[in-house]
Task: structure prediction
Amino acid sequence: MRVVLTTVLEANVKVNDKLIAKINRGYLLLVGFTDGDDKETVDKMVDKILSLRVFPDENGQINISLQDVNGSILSVSQFTLYANAAKGRRPSFVDALRPGEAEPLYDYFNQQIELKYGKLQTGIFGADMKVESINDGPFTLLLDSKELFYQ
Result:
Protein backbone atom coordinates (compact mmCIF):
# COMPACT_ATOMS: atom_id res chain seq x y z
CA MET A 1 0.00 0.00 0.00
CA ARG A 2 1.23 3.44 -0.88
CA VAL A 3 -0.11 6.77 0.25
CA VAL A 4 1.08 10.17 -0.87
CA LEU A 5 0.20 12.53 1.97
CA THR A 6 0.27 16.26 1.30
CA THR A 7 -0.66 18.92 3.81
CA VAL A 8 -3.09 21.34 2.22
CA LEU A 9 -4.82 24.61 2.99
CA GLU A 10 -7.69 23.35 0.87
CA ALA A 11 -8.42 20.59 -1.64
CA ASN A 12 -11.34 19.36 -3.69
CA VAL A 13 -12.38 16.70 -6.18
CA LYS A 14 -14.67 17.16 -9.16
CA VAL A 15 -16.18 14.53 -11.43
CA ASN A 16 -17.81 15.73 -14.67
CA ASP A 17 -17.43 19.33 -13.43
CA LYS A 18 -19.47 18.49 -10.31
CA LEU A 19 -17.90 19.12 -6.90
CA ILE A 20 -17.79 15.75 -5.12
CA ALA A 21 -15.69 16.58 -2.06
CA LYS A 22 -13.96 19.56 -0.49
CA ILE A 23 -11.86 20.17 2.60
CA ASN A 24 -10.03 23.07 4.14
CA ARG A 25 -6.79 22.60 6.11
CA GLY A 26 -5.70 19.00 6.41
CA TYR A 27 -4.41 16.08 4.35
CA LEU A 28 -4.87 15.23 0.71
CA LEU A 29 -4.23 11.47 0.52
CA LEU A 30 -3.58 9.68 -2.77
CA VAL A 31 -4.07 5.98 -2.02
CA GLY A 32 -2.92 2.92 -4.00
CA PHE A 33 -2.81 -0.83 -3.39
CA THR A 34 -0.72 -3.76 -4.60
CA ASP A 35 -0.73 -7.56 -4.26
CA GLY A 36 -0.44 -8.69 -0.67
CA ASP A 37 -2.22 -5.69 0.80
CA ASP A 38 -4.96 -6.61 3.25
CA LYS A 39 -6.98 -5.16 6.13
CA GLU A 40 -4.00 -5.48 8.48
CA THR A 41 -1.92 -3.36 6.10
CA VAL A 42 -4.71 -0.79 5.92
CA ASP A 43 -5.12 -0.69 9.71
CA LYS A 44 -1.40 -0.02 10.18
CA MET A 45 -1.41 2.69 7.51
CA VAL A 46 -4.45 4.43 9.00
CA ASP A 47 -2.84 4.41 12.45
CA LYS A 48 0.40 5.83 10.99
CA ILE A 49 -1.41 8.59 9.10
CA LEU A 50 -3.51 9.62 12.09
CA SER A 51 -0.52 9.67 14.46
CA LEU A 52 1.80 11.79 12.31
CA ARG A 53 2.86 15.23 13.49
CA VAL A 54 3.57 17.13 10.29
CA PHE A 55 2.22 20.63 10.83
CA PRO A 56 4.45 23.43 12.15
CA ASP A 57 4.04 24.65 15.72
CA GLU A 58 4.34 28.28 16.83
CA ASN A 59 8.14 28.01 16.49
CA GLY A 60 8.00 26.62 12.96
CA GLN A 61 8.96 23.10 14.09
CA ILE A 62 7.14 20.16 12.50
CA ASN A 63 5.41 19.03 15.67
CA ILE A 64 1.63 19.37 15.35
CA SER A 65 -0.87 16.65 14.42
CA LEU A 66 -3.90 16.75 12.15
CA GLN A 67 -6.12 16.66 15.21
CA ASP A 68 -4.23 19.60 16.77
CA VAL A 69 -5.04 21.79 13.74
CA ASN A 70 -8.63 20.47 13.58
CA GLY A 71 -7.87 19.33 10.03
CA SER A 72 -9.82 17.18 7.59
CA ILE A 73 -8.84 14.44 5.17
CA LEU A 74 -9.56 14.14 1.46
CA SER A 75 -8.90 10.58 0.28
CA VAL A 76 -8.49 9.86 -3.45
CA SER A 77 -7.86 6.43 -4.98
CA GLN A 78 -4.73 6.44 -7.16
CA PHE A 79 -3.68 3.16 -8.80
CA THR A 80 -0.89 4.97 -10.66
CA LEU A 81 1.15 5.02 -7.44
CA TYR A 82 2.21 1.53 -8.53
CA ALA A 83 3.29 2.54 -12.03
CA ASN A 84 6.60 1.15 -13.24
CA ALA A 85 8.33 3.41 -15.77
CA ALA A 86 11.67 1.58 -15.82
CA LYS A 87 11.32 0.33 -19.39
CA GLY A 88 10.06 2.10 -22.46
CA ARG A 89 8.02 5.27 -22.59
CA ARG A 90 4.72 3.97 -21.27
CA PRO A 91 4.41 3.03 -17.60
CA SER A 92 3.26 -0.45 -16.69
CA PHE A 93 0.59 -0.85 -14.03
CA VAL A 94 0.91 -4.59 -13.42
CA ASP A 95 1.92 -3.96 -9.79
CA ALA A 96 -1.33 -2.10 -9.06
CA LEU A 97 -4.01 -4.23 -7.45
CA ARG A 98 -6.92 -5.00 -9.76
CA PRO A 99 -9.99 -2.79 -9.22
CA GLY A 100 -12.16 -5.65 -7.91
CA GLU A 101 -9.67 -6.24 -5.09
CA ALA A 102 -8.53 -2.64 -4.57
CA GLU A 103 -11.96 -1.05 -4.20
CA PRO A 104 -12.94 -3.03 -1.07
CA LEU A 105 -9.60 -2.15 0.52
CA TYR A 106 -10.04 1.52 -0.38
CA ASP A 107 -13.55 1.45 1.12
CA TYR A 108 -12.18 -0.20 4.26
CA PHE A 109 -9.38 2.40 4.47
CA ASN A 110 -11.94 5.21 4.35
CA GLN A 111 -14.22 3.46 6.86
CA GLN A 112 -11.34 3.16 9.32
CA ILE A 113 -10.42 6.83 8.97
CA GLU A 114 -14.07 7.77 9.44
CA LEU A 115 -14.33 5.53 12.50
CA LYS A 116 -11.07 6.67 14.13
CA TYR A 117 -11.04 10.33 13.11
CA GLY A 118 -14.31 11.33 11.48
CA LYS A 119 -13.41 14.29 9.27
CA LEU A 120 -13.23 12.58 5.89
CA GLN A 121 -14.20 13.38 2.31
CA THR A 122 -13.51 11.04 -0.61
CA GLY A 123 -13.28 10.93 -4.35
CA ILE A 124 -15.05 8.23 -6.36
CA PHE A 125 -13.13 5.01 -6.92
CA GLY A 126 -12.32 4.50 -10.59
CA ALA A 127 -13.78 7.82 -11.72
CA ASP A 128 -11.99 10.36 -13.90
CA MET A 129 -11.43 12.91 -11.15
CA LYS A 130 -10.08 16.43 -11.25
CA VAL A 131 -8.21 17.10 -8.02
CA GLU A 132 -7.28 20.62 -6.98
CA SER A 133 -5.21 21.54 -3.95
CA ILE A 134 -3.44 24.43 -2.37
CA ASN A 135 -0.49 22.70 -0.78
CA ASP A 136 0.70 23.93 2.60
CA GLY A 137 4.46 24.23 2.84
CA PRO A 138 4.49 22.28 0.60
CA PHE A 139 4.90 19.24 2.82
CA THR A 140 4.54 15.85 1.12
CA LEU A 141 5.35 12.32 2.31
CA LEU A 142 5.39 9.02 0.45
CA LEU A 143 4.23 6.30 2.83
CA ASP A 144 4.90 2.77 1.61
CA SER A 145 3.69 -0.16 3.73
CA LYS A 146 6.58 -2.36 2.55
CA GLU A 147 9.06 0.18 3.92
CA LEU A 148 7.11 1.16 7.04
CA PHE A 149 5.84 -2.18 8.31
CA TYR A 150 7.42 -5.14 6.54
CA GLN A 151 11.20 -4.72 6.54
Summary: The CA atoms of residues 26 and 71 lie 4 Å apart. The longest strand covers residues 129-144. The mean pLDDT is 95.
